[in-house]
Design brief:
Blueprint (H helix, E strand, L loop, with lengths): L4 E6 L3 E9 L2 E8 L3 E3 L15 E5 L2 E5 L23 H12 L5 E9 L4 H12 L1 E6 L2 E12 H12 L10 E7 L4 E7 L2 E2 L5 E3 L3 H16 L6 H10 L4 E2 L2 E2 L6 H19 L7 E4 L4 H11 L5 E3 L6 H29 L1
Parallel strand pairs: 1-7, 7-9, 10-16, 16-17
Antiparallel strand pairs: 1-2, 2-3, 4-6, 5-6, 8-9, 10-11, 11-12, 11-13, 14-15
Helix pairs in contact: 3-8, 4-6, 6-7
């Protein structure tokens, strides 16, 4: 029997999801984790210009989300970077925006992710919130039959093992997965695929801290407030200077604060994991990996730092692989339990 399994990782910076699976080809996509609320459905308003977004109705508001969401933006950029993120309507709008792009009205198993620090406290509540019908706008609903929440770096571990055909051998190895995100710097220690809870955690020292620190330095330098975080982010990723007052601005002078923030995050991780001699795999993933790579390598001078292809999607690809492996057992057990109750 074939089960429809899909995965979503609603991060603080980007929402990543599996749009489709064709044979063994897991097709991923993403959009910024920004949800713009309005009182009326935007597409019904005069002068609306079509863009690559969807509008998700939640309570009495409409939330516009998607790849071109910044075209809907005002001067205020709404983000929800706090510990109750998964309880906000913005989170649900982003989740349903991803569901809307999967082109299916029923999902047998939906796999979602949580930061390591929130995993045990929030797992049950998030799985429960995922179940049932999700209004994705336009009179359409996506129904989720079952849900599974995973710690975000756990997905990256599954992805790494799959990419390197280590599904069996890794069961006897101790691994450290490092996942720098927008808000949190996550790490996970695992024996095989099982999380070592007391050595795994997150700290709020992510890419957004770096971007805000650079913006503060630019503001002081140019003598006026500067808040174009997206321009700084693009400049760092492309190694091109951002344009400020029609001139290219050299970010070199701000890089020491970036290195300092990366070092603070790595130091917190080292205190948590303790002895590193037994680590057999150290895997660096996440959209912010390139900003933390130097600090990570300096922290583990005698280890080889492993990476995966397209690290932005490592977590969600791993979620999908784990979900496809888990679904037959999950539904077989549910069927057996149902038969037992009938008997």
């Amino acid at each position: 029997m074939t089960f429809i399994v899909r995965s979503v990782d609603v991060g603080f910076g980007n929402t990543k999801f599996v749009a489709n699976v064709i044979d063994s080809d897991i097709r991923c996509a993403s959009f910024p984790s920004i949800a713009y609320p309005c009182m009326r459905e935007p597409t019904t308003q005069p002068g609306f210009e079509r863009r690559k977004t969807v509008t998700i109705p939640i309570n009495d508001l409409f939330y516009e989300v998607g790849p071109e969401v910044e075209l809907a933006a005002g001067t205020f950029r709404s983000t929800q970077m706090h510990d109750r993120y998964i309880e906000t309507p913005e989170y649900m709008a982003l989740l349903r925006g991803a569901l809307a792009q999967m082109k299916t009205d029923t999902i047998d198993l939906l796999v979602v992710g949580l930061p390591v620090s929130a995993f045990f406290a929030k797992k049950a509540a998030l799985e429960k919130a995922m179940l049932g019908g999700h209004n994705i706008g336009g009179g359409k609903t996506v129904t989720v039959r079952k849900a599974l929440a995973m710690a975000q770096p756990q997905g990256a571990l599954v992805d790494y093992a799959f990419q390197h055909q280590k599904q069996e051998s890794i069961e006897h190895e101790l691994s450290l997965i490092i996942d720098p995100g927008s808000r949190t710097f996550d790490w996970l220690v695992a024996r095989g695929m099982r999380l070592v809870q007391n050595k795994s955690y997150s700290v709020n020292r992510g890419v957004s801290d770096m971007l805000l620190a650079i913006a503060s330095e630019i503001s002081a330098d140019i003598g006026s407030p500067y808040s174009d975080i997206d321009a700084i982010d693009r400049a760092l990723r492309t190694n091109k200077k951002p344009m400020i007052f029609q001139k290219p601005y050299d970010l070199t002078r701000a890089m020491p604060i970036v290195r300092s923030i990366a070092q603070q995050a790595v130091d917190s991780m080292l205190r948590s994991i303790g002895d590193t001699h037994s680590l057999q795999n150290i895997i660096l993933v996440g959209g912010g990996a390139y900003l933390f790579k130097k600090a990570v390598k300096e922290a583990f001078p005698k280890h080889r730092i492993l990476e995966v292809q397209n690290p932005l999607f490592a977590n969600v690809r791993g979620f999908q692989i784990a979900g496809m492996n888990h679904a037959p057992r999950l539904f077989s057990r549910a069927a057996s339990e149902a038969q037992g109750e009938m008997a």
